[in-house]
Task: structure prediction
Amino acid sequence: ETPEEVVGGALWYYFIHKKVLGPQLFIDRLYVDPKYRGRSYGEALVIRVLDLEESSCTHAQLVAPENVIGFYRKLQFSVIQTFRDEELQGRKFALMSRPL
Result:
């Protein structure tokens, strides 16, 4: 790796869930280049996003494909519900959350 290489990225935003949980941080996308996977870059990205959260947020949420649920569980996310996306050939996903 060189300092100029981009190995991954994250996209997140804040929203207010007035009826249940209050202000939320939602991690919309997380990506690490396949040649850099297994080197803790994904974990570092999630931790950095959580460190940047607004102090008013009570929870972080995300939707994870079935194959990476274990990765997020290691970062203290819990499965709230699972579902299949018929537009994506019935792939299974999990809505996950963790308190901040």
User: Anything to note?
Assistant: The chain is about 20% helix and 45% strand. The two ends are 32 Å apart (CA to CA). The mean pLDDT is 86. The first strand starts at residue 8 and ends at 17.
